[in-house]
Amino acid sequence: MIKKFVLLSFTLGSALLFIVKLISLQIINQDYNEISLNNAVEKRPVYPTRGLIFDRNGTLMVANQPVYDLMVVPDNLKPFDTLELISFLDISKDELDQRLTKAKRFSSKIPSVVSRQISKEKQALFQEKIWKYNGFYFQKKTIRDYILPIASNVIGYTSEINPAELKNKSEYSLGEMIGRQGIEKTYERNLKGEKGVQFYQKDRFNRIIGSYKEGFYDENPQAADNLTLTLDAQLQLYGESLMKNKRGGIVAIEPSSGEVLALVTAPSYDPNLLLGGSRSDSFRVLVNDTIAKPLFDRGLQAEYAPGSPFKTLNALIALQEGVITPKTQFTCNQGHYYARGSFMKCHCPIGTSNDLIQGIYNSCNSYFAKTYVQIINKDSTASIGLDRWRTHLEKFGLGNYLGYDLPIGKKGFIPSSSYYDRWYEKGSWGPTTVISNAIGQGEVLATPIQMANFTAAIANRGFYIKPHFVKPASLQVNDSLYPKNQTLINTEHFETVIEGMYQVVEKGTARIARIPGIDVCGKTGTAENFIRLNGEKTQLTDHSIFIAFAPKENPKIVLAVFVENGYWGGRWAAPIASLMIEKYLNGTIKRSWLEDRMLNGSLMSEYMKPLSGKPFNINE
Amino acid sequence: MNNSILSRLDWLSIFLYFLLVGFGILNIYSSIQSDNALSLWDISNVAGKQLFIFLGCCITLPLILYIKSNLFEHLSYIFYGISILSLMGLFVFGQTISGATSWYSIGGFSLQPSEFAKLTTALVLAHFLSAIQTDLRRLKDQFKIVAFIGLPMLLILLQPDAGSALVFLGLFFVFIREGMNLRWLYLGILLVLIFIFTLLFKPIAVSIGGLLLISIAYFTIRKSFNKKSPFLITLGICVLFSFSVDFIFNSLFEQRHRDRFNIILGLEADTQGIGYNINQSKIAIGSGGFSGKGFLNGTQTKGNFVPEQHTDYIFSTIGEEWGFLGSSTLIILFTVLIFRIIYRAEKHTNTYRRIYSYAFASMLFIHFFVNIGMTLGLVPTVGIPLPFISYGGSHLMAFSFMLFLYLNFDSQRLS
Questions:
Q1: Phi and psi angles of residue B81, each rounded to the nearest 5 degrees, phi first
Q2: Which of A47, B19, B44, B287 is the most interior residue, by most CB within 10 Å?
């Protein structure tokens, strides 16, 4: 009888065995599901294209362009035409071998980059031959396309994120571009957008064979914001050409809004240098140029002695504090003694008697030294007077970061009483000790953008708006981001000082800045400066400085111009500022003789002097 | 007549047949589908072909049922002869696909004679065994039986298609049923165990183990036996077998054969080479979980990770897309079908029909056991299809006809 049940029991036994195995595979062991997802489904990020950058008039400045990385999978390599490849890549045979060895050392199955950012024109030539090169393929990437190769100091640049940064930035993945400097860095979040993800079904050769579940789990990328800069591309371009062969900076601001119209630093660099395959070499050259410092933004980072333009602030403070009136007169005899044995020189003829407006347009050192003594001496001690003076200046945005939307900057410096207490015995210093501050020399330091900013406060008759580089509207935020910052000076005092600044251009030190039909107000500066040369403090030719705004009523533009070692403010800075104003307000330049002189003028010989190793003369 | 034959039909088996083939076509469709939808009514894809052949089989079903069963009995030798000739003809006219010369190519369709040889061998064996003059205990008849089975097996082995040849060993169950001494069954099981243990351990260790076990057996049950010789003979066979397995396995087998056994026994963990199929099959089934990923939603299936998925590895598609529920249901359906055939076979008074039905059940079982066992990684990789489910025209036709003959015999039990 048992014989009848042999096959039955074998069948039943197998069925039970299979079901037990199925329970263990499908119900108890959960690993298989994950393995299956890992080898059958691929998750691929989808990157939105980086936001475009426009100037204030809607001119496209920065766009995107496709480039191609030549990739290699070492395992798939077959013998290929080495000569053709090295001539295409423009590298030596050794260099190619080196890169292939490096790729193989990294992984023989995972792709490595052989050559980065090959332009699409170059790639197109090689694309039709790539099939002959087993193991090589092109990978498309998107990089910046600088439609206008200007304002590299404002826009900044992008580069691939490096592995060390990836640890802290989980939202990025290797090979993605990240903003490194300027607008690209500050507004990285807006420009980047949010990447999406797509799921793909793979086959056993790891090839994509279609979307996974018809894209049910896919997420679309969030488009990046396009930014509208406050810069005027025409003005920026013009400023950059005016500053050619000079060192220094131009800052132009629309005073009513705080919008920066131009931020020029010289020398600068072509943003296209930081694109393409030779990016890292170009970058090294720029970083290593420690003399001209092309990566150093002189408009934001250079702290200069403000020089004579600073007199306008001392005048305002003195008026507000009531230590002078517009009618107050001081005499000047080519300068004056401010303490026993200490003489401050001035260029006023002997026996000149200036009131405030004359003091400004003649830039009389004696007038402001005497005014400054009165500001400091108004109270019982010099400390109180100095700190009150400092408070006024702080309200003009000096001595601290302005808080604009670029990632670099300097505080400048306005000394406080405690600063002097550290240098001198407490109470032993007085107004005459710190008298250089009266004329913008001595301890005070300011960056060109701070200078432009306080000029904007003067032009606005009492307030400034934090300078900024991106129109709030393009960030979907309202204007309340930038409120008015009031100074402590009454409006009527500004009118006096502005009249003085108007006279500077009309009959003072900057008559060259006059523009027919436009009322220009300004103030020249000629600031002494020193470097340490072979261990000795050496004086160089003075910096040429000019602050200006125009028109006098309802100003549209304020400027601060610094030209290093340009000597008189009226020689370089004032004409440049004047041309900028004319360009911005009229669109065309009528004074082509002046324009030619500025465009073609070079200070390179001046800059070579301290490098020559020979004794040299200054202020020629 | 018409009414009576309908009432005498084994409707349960017919129902299971339609269910299994229908389910099979669904899964073949799923295993080949890509993003662009395929039509089932298009014989240029395998699912369409399988459906086409299934419909063809359905048409022949009533024809076969109306034929008197005696006719098949009388024609057994002729069918067998044709079958053997067609197997021989392969060496001249056959078409070689992936290394095996197993097919005739006729007008776009391929015909696999070894599938039909299963049917004809079952018929001839039933005819021979049921003959009054045949005695299973007589050496001459035993030799004839071995020849009947051995001839097609040998021809198929030479193709070479070891998997199909293996199926004929399933007829072993027929002899057990028909009165073969059970000691051959025990010996068979013993040899399989020794085979496995020899691969796992050294032959010398297996010999010592065998000696110990047989000594224990001898001392516990010697009272019921008078002679020591059966024990000594068994021991001798075990030791000899163990050493010869070691020799054959290591010297005569090719590496690919060794690999198949080593993977199953866990002696090698190779997920890229030979172990790839089994590993991917297990991933597909395991990832199905309790209720499966759903029809047409298997990611492993879509990605073609499991090779031969519409034929030998069709069960991995079922496991992935229908989960534990679907795959265990399928196992139960098969078990029910085999049980049903054995149950009805035992009711036959006609020996010929009983033996045929039994032979059919045995072959179904071998396919079921080896195929699903292989897909689950329990049995070494042997390429044979899952009856009624896997893609394969000849296979589906041969097994359909086998089932139809079983139905025919079953319905004419009383005649």
A1: -60, -45
A2: B287
pTM: 0.64
CA distance B89 to chain A (A): 34
Fold of A41-59+148-229: Penicillin-binding protein 2a (Domain 2) (3.90.1310)
Lowest-pLDDT range of A59-73, A224-238, B44-58, B290-304: B290-304
Q: Which residues of A touch B303 (CB under 8 A)?
A: 39-40, 201-204, 209
With residue A212 as reference, give the H or E element that holds it.
none
Residue B82 has pLDDT above 60, yes or no: yes
The answer, for B290 touching chain A at a CB cutoff of 8 Å, is yes
pLDDT at B306: 81
How many angstroms separate the most distant Cα atoms in chain B? 74
Task: Tell me the nearest-neighbour CA distance from B135 into chain A, angstroms.
Answer: 17
Whether the pLDDT of residue B1 is over 50: the answer is no
Q: Which residue in A14, A203, A204 is closest to B368 by CB distance?
A: A14
Give me the helices (H) in B67-177, please. 69-93, 113-130, 139-157, 162-167, 172-177
Answer for the pair A364, A503: CB distance below 8 angstroms, yes or no.
no
Element containing residue A507 per DSSP (H, E): helix A491-507
At A333 the pLDDT is: 83
Coil, helix or strand at residue A355: coil
Largest CA distance in chain A: 144
A299 membership: H or E segment, kind and range? helix A298-301
- Residue found under tokens 């049923």: B177
Mean of pLDDT values over B2-9: 73
Domain boundaries, chain B: 2-12+23-180+290-411, 186-252
Look at residues B266, B354, B322 and name the one whose alpha carbon lies nearest to residue B27. B322
Name the token pair of A418. Answer: 């405690």
Average pLDDT over residues B212-239: 72
Chain B residues touching residue A211 (CB < 8 angstroms): 35
Q: What average pLDDT does the structure give for chain A?
A: 88
Mutate to test the interface with A, among B299, B347, B366 (most CBs of A within 10 A): B299
- Say yes or no for a CB contact (<8 Å) between B302 and A209: yes
Q: What is the DSSP string of A237-269?
A: HHHHHHTTT--EEEEEEETTTTEEEEEEEES--
Q: Hey, is A517 helix, strand or coil?
A: coil
Separation of alpha carbons A607 and A566, rounded Å: 10
Q: List, for residues A599-614, the tens digit of each pLDDT value.
A: 999 999 888 888 888 8
CB–CB contact B362 A19 (8 Å): no
- Residue A14 to residue B369, Cβ atoms within 8 A: yes
Selection from A81-95, A106-120, A250-264, A534-548 with the highest mean pLDDT: A250-264
pLDDT at site A505: 93
Q: Please, what is the end-to-end C-alpha distance for chain A in angstroms?
A: 128
Interchain proximity A22–B376, CB inside 8 Å: yes
Q: What number is the ipTM of this complex?
A: 0.88
The class of domain A237-611 in CATH terms is alpha beta
Domain ranges within chain A, ordered by starting residue:
41-59+148-229, 67-73+83-91+111-141, 237-611
Cα–Cα separations (whole angstroms), residue B123 to A266, B72, B77: 101, 8, 8
Question: Cβ B305–A204 below 8 Å, yes or no?
Answer: yes
Q: What is the pLDDT of residues A259-274, one digit of tens each?
A: 999 999 989 998 888 8
Full strand arrangement of the beta sheet holding B109-111:
B95-97, B100-106, B109-111
**H-helix or E-strand spanning residue A535:** none
Pick B303's closest partner by Cβ from A22, A32, A40. A40
Q: Does B303 touch chain A (CB under 8 A)?
A: yes
State the nearest Cα–Cα gap between B328 and chain A, in angstroms: 6
Amino acid at A438: A
Type of residue at B377: G
**Among A232, A224, A152, CA closest to A187:** A224
